[in-house]
Amino acid sequence: MNYAFVSQHLGRFGLAAILLATAPLVAASEQAPARDRWHEAIGEGYSQLATETQALATHASNYCETSSSESRATLEASWLDAYQSWQRVRFVNFGPIEQQSRAWQIQFWPDRKNLVGRKVENWLKADTSPSIEAIANDSVAIQGFPAMEYLLFDERLSEPGALAEPKACDLLLAISTHLAATTQALQHDWQTFGEHYRDTQSYTAATLEAGFQTLDTLETKRLAQPIGLAGSAANAYLAEAWRSERSIKLIAASLVGLDDIFLPGLRTLLNDAGQQRLADTFAEALDDARRQANQMGAGLAPALEDPDAFADLQRLYINVGQLNRLSREVVTALGLTRGFNSSDGD
């Protein structure tokens, strides 16, 4: 892939809605250490994701060979582990993740038309069982974690023996194997991308925008919309992972990723700009949101029916909103401007 061409056209893909101002407070030569830290941390995140998805494919195979309540529980736990690994690096929206719509292959969301459910059901009713190649050539709605979630947690498939049926198991194996292959390729391509990323100044802005866009998505789409704080009634079906009731678990994992992967490079930039206090304030707010999410229940939908749990949900929303406001202060403190993001919207 011609990464130099990509870096010249960042705006086209919405990767750098944060733009370098005429006189940024952090000189170009001082931005490289932040990109070095980000490249290494993202690479470690992709490596963990590849490892977890390979384990998921192995557990799917084990379940289909010897289905039992124990092997199913192991499979479900492995699915969540791998899904959380994805959430930790999900904020990265540039570079190899853009190739072949990989982000959508890994997680098709939002899914307002229930395309995931329809695709899974179509394959379960098909005359022939799916191959890995057939899944790879099909829609992104059938290729990632949400499709596996449907197989693992849909009410009909939760009946004893339903998932162990040949067609269901073949589909489970095809999806998990394709997912493992996708993440392994992503890990490899990120390392190949490394020199270009570290040497290209515009990726400082791209990485900042990716992290801050994730906070905006957390506030407006992953929290406000399903809990009814976006001008419409609460609707748990708008949440991620509503079938498995793991929505909050995934949000917590995204916050962990921002804390562990995104924050170190951001702190480097702020410290170099003489903004240590702002760096500490942002880190404290991120830690508050992370702890709030970790102490809550796993699912968003049950919290809508429980006043105490809903109050916790509102506190999490407020914490994420505070991070969003701080992100705008960070942009100003670094001498940057925040422009239109072409990836906004559904």
Secondary-structure element order, as H and E?
A: HEHHHHHHHHHHHE
Report the biggest beta sheet as strand number plus sense, adding barrel if it closes. Answer: 2 strands, antiparallel
How many independent structural domains?
Answer: 1
Helix content: 55-70%
What's the CATH class, please?
Answer: Mainly Alpha
Number of strands: 2
| Uncertain spans | 1-16, 340-346
- Spatial order of the strands in the main sheet? 1-2
| Level-2 CATH architecture | Up-down Bundle
| CATH fold-level topology | A middle domain of Talin 1
Note the overall shape. globular
Per DSSP, the total helix count is: 12
Mean pLDDT: 91
The fraction of residues assigned to DSSP E strands is under 5%
Rg, nearest Å: 20 Å
Under CATH, the homologous superfamily reads M75 peptidase, HXXE motif
Between the first and last Cα atoms, what is the distance in angstroms?
A: 28 Å
- Helix-and-strand structural type: mainly alpha
Q: What does this molecule look like?
A:
Its main location: other. It is found in: Cell envelope. Residues 1-27 form the signal peptide. This protein is mainly α and 346 residues long. The chain has a single domain (15-338), classed as A middle domain of Talin 1 (Up-down Bundle), CATH 1.20.1420. Helix content is 66%, strand content 2%. It has twelve helices and two strands. The protein has helices at residues 3-8, 28-65, 69-89, 102-106, 115-125, 132-136, 145-153, 166-199, 202-227, 247-272, 276-294, 307-333; strands at 18-20, 336-338. It has a two-stranded antiparallel ribbon. Helix 3 (69-89) runs parallel beside helix 10, helix 5 (115-125) crosses helix 7 (145-153) and helix 7 (145-153) packs antiparallel against helix 8. The protein is globular. Mean pLDDT is 91; it is low at 1-16 and 340-346.
